[in-house]
Amino acid sequence: MFDIEVAKKEIPFNRESLESTLKSRFFYAPAFEAYGSVAGLFDYGPAGCAFQANVVDQWRKHFILEEDMLEVDCTMLTPYEVLKTSGHVDKFSDWMCKDPKTGEIFRADHLVEEVLESRLKGDQVARGLLSNANEQAAEDAEKKKRKKKVKEIQSVKLEDDVVKEYETVLAKIDGYSGEELGELMVKYDIKNPGTQGDLEPPKAFNLMFETAIGPSGQLKGYLRPETAQGQFLNFNKLLDFNNGKIPFASASIGKSFRNEISPRSGLLRVREFLMAEIEHFVDPEDKSHARFKEVSDLKLKFLPKETQQAGSTKPIEVSIGEAVSTKMVDNETLGYFIARIYLFLIKIGVDPTKLRFRQHMANEMAHYAADCWDAELQTSYGWIECVGCADRSAYDLTVHSKKTGEKMVVRQKLDEPKEIEEWEITLTKKLFGPKFRKDAPKVEQYFNELTQEELASKSEELKNSGKITFKVKGVNNDEDIELDDKFLTIEFVKKIQHVREFIPSVIEPSFGIGRIIYAIFEHSFWARKEDTARTVMSFPPQVAPSKVLLVPLQSNKELSAISADIAKILRKEQIPFKIDDSGASIGKRYSRNDELGTPFGITIDFETIEDGTITLRERDSTIQVRGSVKDVLKAIREITYEGVSWADATKNLKVFASQQDEE
Amino acid sequence: MFDIEVAKKEIPFNRESLESTLKSRFFYAPAFEAYGSVAGLFDYGPAGCAFQANVVDQWRKHFILEEDMLEVDCTMLTPYEVLKTSGHVDKFSDWMCKDPKTGEIFRADHLVEEVLESRLKGDQVARGLLSNANEQAAEDAEKKKRKKKVKEIQSVKLEDDVVKEYETVLAKIDGYSGEELGELMVKYDIKNPGTQGDLEPPKAFNLMFETAIGPSGQLKGYLRPETAQGQFLNFNKLLDFNNGKIPFASASIGKSFRNEISPRSGLLRVREFLMAEIEHFVDPEDKSHARFKEVSDLKLKFLPKETQQAGSTKPIEVSIGEAVSTKMVDNETLGYFIARIYLFLIKIGVDPTKLRFRQHMANEMAHYAADCWDAELQTSYGWIECVGCADRSAYDLTVHSKKTGEKMVVRQKLDEPKEIEEWEITLTKKLFGPKFRKDAPKVEQYFNELTQEELASKSEELKNSGKITFKVKGVNNDEDIELDDKFLTIEFVKKIQHVREFIPSVIEPSFGIGRIIYAIFEHSFWARKEDTARTVMSFPPQVAPSKVLLVPLQSNKELSAISADIAKILRKEQIPFKIDDSGASIGKRYSRNDELGTPFGITIDFETIEDGTITLRERDSTIQVRGSVKDVLKAIREITYEGVSWADATKNLKVFASQQDEE
Q1: Residue A587 lies in a domain
Q2: What is the pLDDT of residues B529-580, one digit of tens each?
Q3: Do residues A166 and A218 share a domain?
Q4: Both B431 and B474 in a single domain?
Q5: Is residue A140's pLDDT more than 80?
Q6: Spatial distance between the Cα atoms of A510 and A374, rounded to a whole number of angstroms
Q7: Is the peptide bond before B247 cis (omega within 30 degrees of 0)?
Q8: Do the Cβ atoms of B178 and B95 come closer than 8 Å?
Q9: CB of A497 within 8 A of CB of A420?
Q10: Is it the case that residue A142 has pLDDT exceeding 60?
Q11: Which of B355, B265, B247, B257 is nearest to B301 (CA)?
C-alpha cells in the first residue's frame, strides 16, 4: 500500500518549492501586482478560491448545520461608538516608533527583538561559537519572511549577565506595554538599525482602518476588526428568534481587517482576512454541554499555562473529558468546542501531529476572560495561532448594554418562586421634571443603572446626611448634583422573584480561515521521490478545489465526444471537474493537476470507444483502476462526499497497469 | 388545485405587512440599532442570511460551475492608483449641496426633483385639480421611503409654459451634470426647503469610502465600489491558468461599498452590499457564443432605447435569438448572458411578470461601452435595476495596461502568417542615456506607447522639420522636449505576422444580490384570505432558508424521541430543518414557519408511535399527506433538490384530512 506519510518524509519540506507551486497554479498572489502590490493584501485565484469556498462550506456544515446555529451577516462598516464601547478604540493597537529624520516606522516589539537577537549573535561570534552569523541571520529573516532591519551582525562580546538579561527580555517580548518597550529602548540604546538615528518613543498605533460614513464626514467609522460585535448587538433579536431559550449560538463568516504596521509571513499576517466566528451564549451558572459525552474520549495535545510558565513546550496528551474534569479546561462547553475544532481541522486536511491547543497565559488574556485556548498549527514559520477558543464571560453584552441602556438579558421562569433581599430605589418622578427639565431622563437613567453595592452606599449617605451628591455626564455642566430624601428613597426590601434574569456568558470559537488554509497548504504538500519537481497537494477530496480531471488520451473526435458526455453527467451531479484536452502528455497533464490537488483523474482512451470503460487514477499513489463510467463515477462520489475509502469504493474495479501514465 | 397566483391577487400587496413579517422573523434589521443605527447599513438575521447563502450557492452553480468560470476572491481595500486609472476617483460621484448656515447636505438631483414636484402639486391645488396635496405628498414620500424635505405644498398657480418646463426637467432629472443642476437651482430659485436659506452650488461628492493603508497614513486607499477591478488586474494570471485560451470568464462574489449621500428605500440603496460579478473575456472580432443556441428561443421582455426615447415603457416581447439577429442586442455573448440571467432569476423566485430588460440610453452608458442592458425587477418602489449586463469593450484592460506598462493581451497563433504594413519606430538608444540620464526609460516608454495614428503624425513632423517636439510627464519639468532624426526613425514597413495579439472585450453581468433578495421578498409575499394576519413567503424550496419544520404534536417523550430520530436523518442528509416543540398550537407553529418560507412541515403524532407514519404539509396549499418517514423524506428531497413537482413526488402518499392543523 502507498503510504503518503512515508512519501512526505522522503523529501524534506521546502517552502520555496511550495511557494512556486502556489504561484504557478494561482492559489493566491499579491493583490495589485501590476501596480507594485500592497503589503498584506492578497487575492485568491481559482484554485485558492475554490479551496476556500469548500473549507467555508465544510465549516458551515460542521458547525452551523450540525448545531443549529443562527448565522448572521453583519456589516463591516462599524461606527466609532460601538468599537469605543467594546474597547477596540483604546486597546486594539501595536506600538510603533518613528525615526523623525527618515520617516521610517518600526514596530517597537519587533525592533527590540531583532536588535537584541543580533547582539546575542554578535556575542556568540566574539566568543568564537558562531562563524557565519550574518548568513545565519539572513536565513532566519528569510524563515520569518521579515525584511531585515539589522543588516549586519557586529562581533561584540557581551557580559554574561547582559546575555542573561537579553534572553529574559526576549522570552517575554510579547507581553510588554508601550512604556516598557520605550524603557527597554533607552536602557539598551536601541536606535534605527540602518542609520543609528534616534527614534521617537513608542506610540500606540490603532490597527483599525478608519473611514468616514456619509457626506458630512462627521460620522467616524472603522472596518470591523472581528465579526463578534455585530453578533453581540443582535443578541436580543437572536434570543427572540430562538424563542427566548438558551444555550444557543450565533455564527458569522466574513472579512475583517487589521492595519498591520508591517505585514509579513505571507497569508499568515494580512490586512484583510476571512474569519468564521461563533458566539455561543450560555448560562454562567451552568456551562455544561448536552453533547459533551459524544467527544469526551477524544485525546488531544494540550499546552496548559503551567507547562508554559515552567518553560516547557512539551504538550500533555489527555482526553478532553479528563481535561475538563481536572479543570485544566474551564468548562464542558469550552471543552466541547475545543474537540469540535479539532475534528473540523482534521477533516479539512490539517496534519494531527502538527496541531496543539495552547492555553493563554494570564497576561495574554483579556481581564474579563475566564479561559482561552488557541488551536496552533505548526508551519515552517513556527507554531501559528489559527483558531481561538475563549470564554469571554458576560463582558461584551454587559458593556454594550450599559452604554446603550438596552437590556441584553435572558429571562427564565423559575420553577419555584424565590425570596430575595435587595436594595431598591424609588424616585419621586413628579419632582424630577420641574428640577431637571429635559435632563430628567438622564438623571433617572443614572439611578436605574446603579449596582447593588452603589445603592447600599448611597443609602448610607442619604441616611447620614439627608441628601446625596453625584454627577451625571451632560447634566449641570458635569458638576455635582445634590438631591435630598424628598426626591428618592433607597430601601433594603424582601421580594419574591418569579423570573431569573441574567446576562449570559459567551464561548467564542474564532477561526482565521486564511491561516488555516496556509497551514493546510504546508501540511498537504510533498514531492515525488522519482522527480522532486513533481509536487503534489494531497488535499482531502471533500475540500480539493476540483475533484476530477478528464483526460482524453489524444485529440480525437470520438474521444472528445465521450469526454463531453462524461462532463455532462459530472455537471448534472455538481461534481467540480476540469477537462484537459491540451496536446501535453498524459503524465504532464496529471502532474499539473497533482499540483492543484485534484484527487481523481479519468482517462478516456481507445478501449473506451470499444467497451465504454475508463480508467480512474488516484492522485497520491498514482494507482489506476478501470471500469464502466457508471461505476467509476459512483466510486468518485462515494469517496468525495460519503467518506468511503479508496479500497472499499474501488473494490469492484479492475486494477489497471498503465502504459502511458507518469512519463 | 391550489393556485398561488390567485391567492396572491385576492389580498392586495401591502408593504407594511411585509416589513412587519421581515422584522418579526428577523430576515434583516438596521445595523447597530442599540446605538441608534446608521442609515444604509443592514444586518441579515438567520432567515435572511440562510436565504442569501442559498441564493449565492445557486448563483455559483448556475454560473460558475455550469460555465467553468474561474472564481477569484480579491481584496476590498484598493489603492488610490488603481481606482484613479479605472476612472472611479474622478467620476464615481453624486452631486451635493450644502447649506452653509445649518450644515445640512442635500443630494442635488433629488432636491431639484422634489421641489419641482411639490410646485407642480401646488399648481394643481391652485387650479382646483387636487385637494389633499399635502396628504398625497406625504404618501408619495412614504412610498419612496424618503425623508420629506419639502414639508408643505403651497397652493401657487404656475404659468402653463412653466409647468411644461418643469415636466421636461423632471423627465431628464437623472441625466444632468453638477453644473447643470446648479444652473437649474439658480434659474428656479431652489433653496433649503426647511429654512429657505441659500445653498452652495453643487459639489461632486465621491461615493467611495476612503481610508489609509499602513502606519504612515500616506498610502491612500478606498473600499472597492465593485469587484470588477480586482478581476481585471488578475487577467494575465487567469489567462495563463486557462492555458492562454479565450473566451473564458472570471467571477467574484463579495461585498462592495458606496457611501450614499442619503440612503433610503431599505435594502435597495445601501452603503455596503453583496455583489456577484462575471467578467467574460471575448475576442472583440468574434462575440459569438458556443451555447447561444441552447437559449435562443427564450422569449423575454425588452425595453430598448428607441422605445424609451419615444416616451413609452411598453416592452417588446421577442426571443433572445431574434433580439440578437435584429441587432437590438449587440451580440450573441451579451444575449446569452441576458438569457442566463433570466433563467437564474426565475429559478430563485423572481416573478417573471415583474422582470424586464431595459437598455441603457446613450447618455446613461459609459462612453466605452458597446451595449448595456439592466434586468429590472418591479417592486413597490418601482422598477429597480438589479442586474447590469454590459459590454465594456476593451476599456479596463487598456487603461490599466497603459498605466502600469504591463501588457494585458491574448496571443493567438495565426493559421496563416499575415502580411501587414504599419508604422515602426526605432530609437537610437545609446543616445538616450547621455541625454536624459535617469529619465531615459520614461522617454522610451513614451515612444513605445504611441498609437499608429500618433506615429504617422510624428513621422510627418520629422520628415518636414527634421525634428519632433513632445512632452513627457516628469521629464524636463514637463516642458517641451526636442529630438532630431539622429535619435529616432519612424518608417512605414511591411511585416509578416505569425501571432495575432489583441486586448479582449469584456462582457460583464453584475448582480446586486441584496436588491434581488428584496425583490424576491416582495414577489413571494402574500396573505391568506381566511386571515390576512397569516402571511406567507412562497420561496422556491431550493432557496428557502430552512426546508422542513418538525412538529411533535404534543410535549411527550415518545414523540420527542421520534422527532429526534428524524432530525438525525435530516442532519445526516444535510437538509436544513428546525424543530418546534414549543407549547404553541400546531396552527401557530406552522404559521410562524409560513412567514419564514419553510416549504414543508412534518407532524409527529400518536399514530406515528403506532405505525411509524408522519404527515407532510405543503406550505402554500396547506395540503397534508401521510406516509412512512422514508417516503416522506424522499418526497422532500426530490422536490427540494431534484426539481420534481409536489404532485409527482407525493403520488404514493395518502391525502390526509387534518383535524388539528390551521386553527
Answers
A1: yes
A2: 989 899 999 999 999 999 999 999 998 899 999 999 999 999 989 899 999 9
A3: no
A4: yes
A5: no
A6: 9
A7: yes
A8: yes
A9: yes
A10: no
A11: B355
Residue A52 contacts B where some CB pair is shorter than 8 Å: yes
Cα–Cα dist B172/B363, whole Å: 11
Which of A428, A425, A412 lies closest to A498, judged by CA? Answer: A412
- Span B603-621, pLDDT tens digits: 999 999 999 999 999 999 9
Are B355 and B339 within 8 A, CB to CB? Answer: no
CATH classification at residue B189: 3.30.40.230
Q: Given an 8 Å threshold on Cβ–Cβ distance, is B38 in contact with A213? A: yes
Domain hosting B565: range is 546-656
Instruction: Give me B633's grid cell.
Output: 423524506
Residue appearing with cell numbers 516642458: B479
Q: Residue B81 and residue A35: Cβ atoms within 8 Å?
A: yes
The total number of structural domains in chain A stands at 5
Residue whose C-alpha is closest to residue A280's, from A253, A252, A254, A247: A247
Residue A116 included in any domain? yes
- What are the beta bridge partners of residue A557? none
Task: Tell me whether strands B613-618 and B624-628 are parallel, antiparallel or unpaired.
Answer: antiparallel
Does B229 reach chain A within 8 Å, measured CB to CB?
no
C-alpha cell of B349?
Answer: 423566485
DSSP at B7:
H
Residues 80-109 of B with CB under 8 A from A: 81-82, 96, 103, 105
Q: Kindly indicate the confidence band of residue B197, based on its pLDDT and cuts at 50, 70 and 90.
A: very high
Is A629 within a domain?
yes
Minimal C-alpha gap between A129 and chain B (Å): 39
Separation CA A241–CA B22 (nearest Å)? 12
Q: Is residue B80 part of a domain?
A: no
Indicate if B488 and B383 belong to the same structural domain: no
The answer to whether the beta carbons of residues A50 and A576 sit under 8 Å apart is yes
Taking Cα atoms as reference points, which of B406, B357, B363, B364 lies closest to residue B385? B357
CATH number at residue B304: 3.30.930.10
Do A374 and A425 fall within a single domain? Answer: no
Same structural domain for residues A246 and A215? no
Q: Which of B13, B514, B23 is CA-nearest to residue B268? A: B514
CATH number at residue A598: 3.40.50.800
The verdict on a CB contact (< 8 Å) between A214 and B261 is yes
Is the CB of residue A259 less than 8 Å from the CB of residue A208?
yes
pLDDT over 50 (residue B663): no
d(CA A80, CA B246): 47
Task: Using the 3D structure, point to which of B473, B502, B531 is the last residue of a domain.
Answer: B502
Residues, chain A: 663
Quote the ipTM score. 0.88
Q: How far apart are CA A389 and CA A384, in angstroms?
A: 14
The angle, 0 to 180 degrees and rounded to 10, between the axes of the packed helices A629-642 and A557-572 is 40
Same domain, A100 and A20: no
Domain boundary among B175, B206, B237: B206
> Using an 8 Å Cβ cutoff, are A71 and B50 in contact?
yes
Q: Which of A45, A212, A576 sits opposite B72 (nearest CB)?
A: A45
Q: Are residues A81 and A117 in the same domain?
A: no
Q: Are residues B67 and B119 in the same domain?
A: no
Residues forming beta bridges with residue A300, ordered by sequence position: A318
Pairing label, strands A613-618, A624-628: antiparallel
The DSSP bridge pattern shows strands A577-579 and A548-552 to be: parallel
For every residue of A438-499, DSSP letters joined together read GGHHHHHHHHHT--HHHHHHHHHHHHHHSEEEE--TTSGGG--EEEETTTEEEEEEEEEEEE
Which of A72, A257, A291, A548 best tests the B interface by mutation, with the highest count of B CBs <10 A?
A72
Sequence-distant (≥ 6) Cβ neighbours of residue B107 within 8 angstroms: B94, B95, B96, B261, B262
